[in-house]
Amino acid sequence: MKRLILSLALSATAALFVLTASAEEKKAKRILLITESRGFRHGCVTRHVKASAEVDPKALAAVPGVRDVKVNKDKDGKVTGLTATYDGGGRVDPEKGSELKVEGKGVAVALPCVVEKAFAELARASGDFEVVCSQAARKEITAENLKNFDAVFFYTTGDLGLSDLQKSDLISFVKSGKGFAGSHSATDTYYGWKEYGELIGGYFDGHPWHQKVKVIVEDGKHPATKHLGDSFEITDEIYQFRTPYSRKNLRVLMRLDRAVDRTSVSVNGKKLADQDELQITIKDGKPVVKVNGSETDVKNLDFSGPRGNRKDGDNALAWVQEYGKGRVFYTALGHRDEVWKDEALRQAPARRAALRAGAGERRRDAAAGQRQVTFRVNSDRGMTPVAGATAPP
Question: What residues contact 359, with CB distance under 8 A and at least 6 apart?
Answer without folding.
Answer: 286, 287, 298, 299
